[in-house]
Amino acid sequence: MSEKRLPDAAVKGGNKTFFSLDELITVTVGKEQTKHMIHESILRQCPFFDKCLSSGMREEHEKSINLPDDDPTAIEVIIEWLYAKTIDRLQCGNHYIVAYVAADKYCMRELQNSIIDKLCSTPYGDVTPSFVSSVWNGTAEGSKLRELTLDFLHYCIVTRPELYKPSDGRYYKELQELMHDGDVAYVLMWRLADQRELDLEHPLLKKGCVYHVHEDGSACENGLETA
């Protein structure tokens, strides 16, 4: 069991307010029971944690929140975001998936959109079918992350089909495994069959907030048109 205190990002930049009068809440995460000491006012920025610390719930009296089923990396991303509005901890594909799922779970729409924006701003090459499979299996129906990665794979297959063909295709075996998943195979098949999609735009270059999540009727945080 390990214990972590105020993230470096909160000290070096972002939210520079000192919380000397703020109570510290113990947030215990995952099977390893990693403990984070987080200022209460910071946690209350998240609707879920705000509810946990209100209305006479056990967490309010004990000043502790237990998240046994959450991914430690995802919670570290959430904590960094709450303190500094940065997501520098996203270092690999799996980080994006677990962080996006956790942000969705805790209704943190702005964080979900920032994760999408960072993914779209990274240098892009080819998306692997195995990554799409991981996203598909780790997210819920209607997920914008699903939509983005599937659009990306569709684009790659149409524009660079040699990478996915049986003869020396770098991703042929991965695509073959992905197509064993009936749900994703069905969606991808119809996208590839749709002749209207032959003139494709790279999904990471689309303007606006096509892959953002919005509450009904709300404007995008970036001031872009909602999809």
TrEMBL record:
Under CDD domains, the record lists: BTB_POZ_ZBTB_KLHL-like
BTB domain ranges (all copies): 21-91
- Give the highest taxon in the source lineage: Eukaryota
Q: Which Gene3D superfamilies match?
A: Potassium Channel Kv1.1, Chain A (3.30.710.10)
UniProt name for this protein: BTB domain-containing protein
Recite the lineage of the species: Eukaryota, Fungi, Dikarya, Ascomycota, Pezizomycotina
